[in-house]
Amino acid sequence: MQGWIGQKDWNDQIDGIDRIMIFKNREEAGHRLVERLSSYRDQPGTLILALPRGGVAVGYQLSLGLHLPLDVFITRKLGAPDNPEYALGAVGETGVVYLNPEAMAACRLSRADITQLVRAQQEEIVRRQTLYRQDRRFPVLTGRTVILVDDGIATGSTFFASVQSIKSLNPRRLIGAIPVGPTDTILEARAQVDELVVLATPDPFWAVGNHYVDFSQVDDRDVVEYLNLAEEAMRERAEPSSA
Is the pTM of this model over 0.70? Predict the structure, then answer.
């Protein structure tokens, strides 16, 4: 539900969220989020930050539907050395590191091991900053409303690192926009943002991709194209009509 006020009465609040929704693709997920975020359409001082790569495909639809600028917030998962898909935490492009307490307890890595993982992902963050922004500066977030979007969350490590990073830049409001995620992670996410919009909380939840018919990989070229197209659309809206 949009505008949840807290974690109590969760069972009542979750009644408004689909428990089994399957999306055709990221485009459909974005369109559905536009419907739920329509109050932000054309709102001054508001921008969309999408988590690459998959979140940018969703964020592009939000940008078109809400007439808001789109940028990326680059956050990288810290995968376990013996299982890179298992998230120990994540690091955001501002340098904020989030570590999942349960995952860290299970892996028992040394501080040196964590430092090495973080450095490797920071190098990838720099590469993506150069590629995606193409000399554009990171947007000013202070005093603005930020809509943070991904194509779904599982453990939430990447989302939580992004939230902590963005909060350090003093936005006026931070809204999370998530098509799908497990109930326990969604509860934790709700506690960290001013507003959370979620479309589906499947039970059981196995993986984000299980809830899309088409969950094709989004590559770097796609991300750059989405950003360029969103920028072009915003520029066209700002130009006076020739009629």
Answer: yes
